[in-house]
Design a protein that fits this description.
This protein has 16 helices and two strands. It has about 375 residues and is an all-alpha fold. A two-stranded parallel ribbon has the order 1-2. It is globular, with a radius of gyration of 21 Å. About 40% of the residues are buried.
Length: about 375
């Protein structure tokens, strides 16, 4: 028997079997009507928000490197740069949801100021479309889903332990494996299948789309050139080992913020079964509180992840208004309201509660680790 949930946590929504559930329930049709006018992007807001975020991030980085060691100024530079690089980095999510040809120069400038120097070009996040697919979401074929709430607690610990290694993996990908794969067809196929997607599911395998390979090659060359430039500056003594360690710490912390934040995006209790569009919504979370931590940890619309799975193309700057309308106008018994959690800690506490109640024999992770199950 499952132990009761801690006070303040919501029980999972009980849903009928997929074969007996309408694909578009009445409340979803009503929700579409309520937010129908909120799907237009404002390029000016995107440009202003991103350029301010990344500009201040680079200025704070300069302070971090130039200030006296362990001084207040250096600490402030570190945290401001990390938080703003994290914020600027989350625009990658907006980019992959834009239509082909939409805000092309925004994507190019994002790569120039954020994606290339931080070794995270936005094209490697193309796999995100599988995260919204009824064929893939919540299964081993979803690069952004692990059944952490339906697996022992050690799986969450293993997930978190990867965070400090993320910069190292990026350096290996763009500084070693990518360039070597240009010279060997077999290695290239492996790189395109196993190391060319931004994922949190380490078992995910899917070949990079052929139509995007030219784009990928261009950003690979740029990332490699960036790393060669850093190596040349190290060789002539302009960059020291201390500088490299400082840069690694900054990048690791910025990337870890998103890695940890991701724990509050979904319930992570699906055992790998197919999930419809509405199922994806039920399994996702809106963070409804407005604490300073929430504002910092969930920038650029990330607070409204359940809402995003209802309306994936809605621009981030309209999501707050959409949530207010839906909260006010949908019926009190509408499932939309049950997706809310007051804080990051409430959402993660629910996940950890499920993990503590799951024995190794019951672990859904077994399905993720079976050979072939994470391939599309």
């Amino acid at each position: 028997m499952n132990a009761p949930l801690p006070p303040g946590f919501e029980a999972p929504i009980v849903r009928p079997a997929a074969s007996h559930r309408e694909p578009d329930p009445a409340w979803l049709i009503q929700a579409r009507e309520i937010v129908a006018d909120l799907n237009t992007h404002s390029p000016a807001l995107y440009w202003i928000d991103f350029l301010l975020s990344v500009g201040v991030a680079w200025a704070a980085t300069a302070v971090y490197f130039l200030a006296p060691g362990w001084s207040l100024a250096q600490s402030a530079g570190f945290f401001i740069a990390s938080l703003l690089f994290y914020r600027a980095g989350t625009f990658i999510h907006e980019l992959v949801h834009m239509k082909p040809g939409q805000m092309v120069w925004f994507g190019r400038v994002w790569n120039l100021l954020q994606g290339i120097p931080l070794l995270m070009p936005w094209v490697i996040y193309r796999n995100h479309v599988d995260h919204h697919s009824a064929r893939h979401f919540g299964s081993p074929r979803d690069g952004e889903y692990l059944p952490l709430a339906a697996a022992p607690l050690r799986e969450t610990v293993k997930y978190l332990a990867q965070a400090p290694l993320l910069p190292l993996l990026s350096i290996l990908r763009f500084g070693v494996l990518g360039p070597l794969s240009w010279l060997h067809r077999g290695l290239r196929e492996w790189v395109l299948t196993a190391t060319s997607a931004a994922v949190s599911n380490p078992y995910y395998r899917k070949r990079f789309p052929k139509r995007e390979q030219r784009h990928l090659l261009i950003v690979e060359v740029l990332c490699f050139a960036w790393l060669l430039g850093i190596a040349a500056l190290v060789a002539v003594g302009r960059i020291t080992v201390q500088h490299l360690a400082m840069a690694y710490a900054l990048l690791a912390f910025a990337l870890s913020l998103n890695w940890v934040r991701n724990l509050a995006a979904h319930r992570y209790d699906n055992a790998g079964e197919a999930m419809s569009h509405v199922d994806q919504f039920y399994n996702s979370i809106n963070i409804t509180g407005r604490s300073p931590l929430t504002v910092l940890m969930f920038p650029v619309g990330l607070r409204w992840h359940a809402l995003h799975h209802l309306f994936p193309s809605m621009p981030y700057h309209n999501m707050g208004e959409a949530h207010r309308r839906l909260s006010a106008q949908l019926p009190a018994d509408c499932p939309y309201h049950a997706t809310g959690r007051e804080s990051f800690f409430a959402a993660v506490g629910e996940l950890l509660g499920g993990a503590r109640r799951t024995s190794p024999e019951q672990s859904a992770m077994r399905r993720w680790t079976q050979p072939g199950t994470a391939q599309s």
